[in-house]
Amino acid sequence: MNVAEVFVGLLLGIGLAAACGFRVFVPLLVVSIAQRAGHLELAQGFQWIGSWPALLSFAVATGLEVLAYYIPWLDNLLDTVATPLAVVAGTVLTASVVGDLSPVLRWGLAVVAGGGTATVVQAATTVTRAASSVTTGGLGNPVVSTVEAGASTGLSLLAVLVPVLAGLVALGLVALAVWVTVRLVRRRRAGSPHRPSGQPAAGTGTPPSP
Question: What is the pTM of this model?
């Protein structure tokens, strides 16, 4: 396999990994269908992803995952479980499409590119949902869930059909996710009180009487 093919496979993996950051099982289902349809060739040892048992399992898991994120407050709980699952799924999918490489190089790229991308995107969705829960009391969470499910589906399909474009979009999403996460964390810290109003800082003594 030449360098160009490895590069395209890596971008395909990054696109799928980013989709895992939005929803864990949607990209797995899309890849499984694409492999069974003969549209996508997976690396040796990963053909099980396109098997009928795997496809049916991914389909059921996808339906349950999408629906569960519409249940108030359960969606926040699911984020704690989805984060490690997204990392694993992003790593496995990247390893399955990156090309015919040595195991060390394959899994090294998969962990860094695939697992790293899934981690960043998942972290951004977790922070966004937490902010929505605080500011809207959870009423805005279904909108967030809908956007996430749509982004995962669209990015998964784009990765299978136009892997280079999907990889570039995913890299842009990673940059945006980092920016959004930093902004939300800074805003939350800036909005948290440090000491009661009217109280002097430590070591300043008693404030003068008016």
Answer: 0.84
